[in-house]
Amino acid sequence: MAEFLAMGGYGFYVWSSYGVVAFVLAYVAFSSWRGYGRRRRELDNQERRSQRRKTS
Amino acid sequence: MFGLANPRRFMSFTDYALPIATALTVVLTIVGLYWGLVLAPEDYQQGDTVRIMFVHVPAAWMAMACYLVIAVASLCSLIWRHPLADMAARQTAPVGAAFTALALITGSLWGAPMWGTWWVWDARLTSVLVLFFLYLGYMALWASFEDRARAARAAAVLALIGAINLPIIKFSVDWWNTLHQAASVSRFDGPAIHESILIPLLIMATAFKAYYAMVLMLRMRTDIMERKIDALRAGRAREQVV
Questions:
Q1: Is ipTM > 0.95 here?
Q2: Interface of A with B in 1-56 (CB under 8 A)
Q3: A32 belongs to a structural domain
């Protein structure tokens, strides 16, 4: 395991590369999901408000 | 192809396609990581740093592919004025910028131990840095207009002018002297790298493509909902005036 983590002495470079890729791609995906959920709820709200106006 | 150009049909298509792309991303990433980090052999010259290739090269490919998507979608948007083409272009930009930044960072982390330098101002590295700034400029242009249709047109023109950078990036390693190696996968005489590292590379590249498809669908759906929200608000405001 220690040998695997050491990456033949290049551990810092290899794991930094994979780490930064994982972090950035996870961040972009997560913020896209969050934006999606927010709009989803807002659209529901707006649709209810428009419905209420029509029925009242 | 034009069947999808209808927002409602796009929504029902992505009801199925989005979970598939998400599942593909997860599975391919797990397989690709295991293959690339554990199964693949180290390089006889570069040692374990060659594993950086499995994230660096797919990121660089996607950096260019995303810009190509933006350019083609921009052309469609200018010709047919279709809102989904605008959305595809606009929502691709942040993902493309992320891939470009990752290509630059991982390239630097690979260059430091192998070339002995984090950065050189040579043709390949500089043209990719220009690509990164093109993405930022493109996003800034979108953000700087109140009116969506005008923003779409201005951004599309910028995207098409910037597309000249794509062949420059691709051929920079052939046209100029550079530390960066020439293409070893997409060559006329077939890939020049061994299967043992070509296969994990292609798996990771496919994983990145699935990831892009997933995020793009998600962001375009968000964009469509945003337009619906605006339309509902505008509709109520009109009723109030009457």
A1: no
A2: 4, 7-11, 13-14, 16-18, 20-21, 24-25, 28-29, 32-33, 35-36, 39-40, 42-43, 46-47, 49-50, 53
A3: yes
Q: How many residues does chain A have?
A: 56
Contact B102 A50 (CB under 8 A): no
Quick one: how far is CA B176 from the chain centroid? Answer: 25
Task: Dig out the tokens for B162 from the structure.
Answer: 């910037």
Q: Is residue A33 part of a domain?
A: yes
> How is residue B178 written in tokens?
């550079």
Q: What is the pLDDT of residues B77-89, one digit of tens each?
A: 999 888 899 999 9
User: What mean pLDDT value characterizes chain B?
Assistant: 89
CB atoms within 10 A of CB B233: 13
Residue in the structure block whose two tokens are 């077939």: B190
What is the Cα–Cα distance from B3 to B197, expressed in whole angstroms?
39
Is residue A38 in some structural domain?
A: yes
Distance CA B68, CA B96 (A): 10
Task: Tell me whether residue A7 is in a domain.
Answer: no
Contact A42 B229 (CB under 8 A): yes
- Angle at which helices B53-80 and B195-241 cross, to 10°: 40
